[in-house]
Amino acid sequence: MKLLSLNVGRPKAVDIAEESKSVTGIDKRPVAGPVRVTAPGPKGVGASGVAGDAVCNTEHHGGNDQAVYAFAREDLDGWERELGRTLPSGTFGENLTTEGLDVSGALIGERWRIGAEVILEVTTGRVPCLNFQQHMGERGWVKRFTRKGAPGAYLRVIQPGEIRAGDPIEIVHRPDHDITVALAFRASMTEHEMLPRLLAAAEALHPEVLEIARKYAAERAAAEAE
């Protein structure tokens, strides 16, 4: 398992609807590194955990619990075959393009060591947005990406340090539950009846997803008690 490509983005204006523009850092390009990775601060204040990487909408992106975004090269290759076009590493806005690692199959709370120093922890999957759809230029992309159910993973920084393209990736911790990124994504996006299952991963789950899961579980319990 290794870091095949390390990618950072620069601010870029895109059209998200007629007469509507947005500035986004989704267009990420490979860099050799080394690049420093640190916890950026709370959401709404902190941006990307990867030095030099632009996060333009800190209301919805960036912050400690989604400091770094990873996507598997194998999944990009699958999309290449499906879409019939080349998708360079970084195309999906991922900071880390991995090789040999099942990113969407990772457990919430799983920890990865990248290179000699950096340790990251999986928190949740990526939620597709209109900026992503516009960036891809594919009709109905948000729905199509959601149906695929392989969203890649957001990670928080447990131990900061420097990484570079080609660094080895080692899984150094797997929690004692079965809640994967893909399962959490399906529960959040399309199969809400599974939301209570996510509570098994409460210790590491992204707090926004955890709040949704707790609220759903409480409402369902209340309804069953009536």
Put the structure in a nutshell.
With 226 residues, the protein is an alpha+beta fold.
Provide the spatial order of strands within the biggest beta sheet.
4-1-7-6-10-9-8-12
Query: How can the largest sheet be summarized?
Result: 8 strands, mixed
The oligomeric state is single chain
Radius of gyration over C-alpha positions, nearest whole angstrom: 17 Å
Q: Classify the fold: give the CATH topology.
A: M1 Pyruvate Kinase, Domain 3
Q: What would the average pLDDT be, to the nearest integer?
A: 94
Helix percentage range = 10-25%
CATH homologous superfamily title: PK beta-barrel domain-like
Q: Which blocks of ≥5 consecutive residues have pLDDT under 50?
A: none
In the CATH scheme, the class would be Mainly Beta
Global structural class: alpha+beta
* DSSP summary: helix tally: 5
Could you tell me the strand content as a percent range? 25-35%
Distance between the terminal alpha carbons, to the nearest Å? 51 Å
Based on the coordinates given, report the CATH architecture: Beta Barrel
Question: How many discrete structural domains?
Answer: 1
Overview of this structure, please?
There is one protein chain. This protein is of the alpha+beta class and 226 residues long. It has one domain (2-225): M1 Pyruvate Kinase, Domain 3, CATH 2.40.33.20. Helix content is 24%, strand content 27%. The chain has five helices and twelve strands. The chain has helices at residues 73-83, 130-136, 141-148, 181-189, 207-225, and strands at 2-9, 12-17, 20-24, 28-31, 35-37, 68-72, 96-99, 111-114, 118-125, 153-159, 161-163, 169-173. It has an eight-stranded mixed sheet with strand order 4-1-7-6-10-9-8-12. It is globular. The model has no long low-confidence stretch (mean pLDDT 94).
